[in-house]
Amino acid sequence: MTQVIEHIDVDVPVNVAYNQWTQFESFPHFLSFVESVTQLDDTHTHWKVKIAGAEREFDAVITEQHPDERVAWNSTGGEENHAGVVTFHKLSDTTSRVTVQLDWEAEGFLEKVGAVFGVDDKAIKGDLKNFKKFIETRPAPTGEWRGDVSN
């Protein structure tokens, strides 16, 4: 299993960062590998991604979600077997830290080579920088979902 943990500090209050992250359909604006995300209901999403040049689709379920604290998920279908959590930490009234942990099974030769050489870490770092730019240049999040999901 491959694991990546990365974080970034963003110059927005923690609730603003969290609210934007709950807008899964906006992910293609800042996650380079995401083609589209369709929100099926409060806890289920359908993803189309492009990884190492290969297009893939999968479903994911939100397993835990607590406003301004965390969003955790597991994939539930397709070729991708992964899980992750994003946590949100208040650093000040106007600054927060967003931490992403992803765990997945590298499939295929290119993905395994990419994992060995840290390509995944670099991609996630880059995508977190994209999120920072996206959220800091907006007057407000594109939406919010403040529901609570527990295991």
Describe what is shown at a glance.
Helices cover 23% and strands 40% of the residues. The chain has 151 residues and is α+β, with helices and mostly antiparallel strands. A seven-stranded antiparallel beta sheet has the order 1-7-6-5-4-3-2, with helices on one face.
3D architecture notes:
The structure is a single chain. The protein has a 7-stranded antiparallel beta sheet, with helices on one face. Helix content is 23%, strand content 40%. The two termini are 23 Å apart. The chain is of the alpha+beta class. The longest helix is centred in the C-terminal third of the chain and has 18 residues, at 119-136. The protein has a single domain (2-136), classed as START domain (Alpha-D-Glucose-1,6-Bisphosphate, Chain A, domain 4), CATH 3.30.530.
Low-confidence stretches: none
Given this structure, which CATH class is correct?
Alpha Beta
Radius of gyration: 15 Å
Instruction: Supply the number of structural domains.
Output: 1
Element string (H = helix, E = strand):
EHEEEEEEHH
| CATH homolog superfamily | START domain
The CATH topology turns out to be Alpha-D-Glucose-1,6-Bisphosphate, Chain A, domain 4
Q: How would a crystallographer describe the biggest sheet?
A: 7 strands, antiparallel
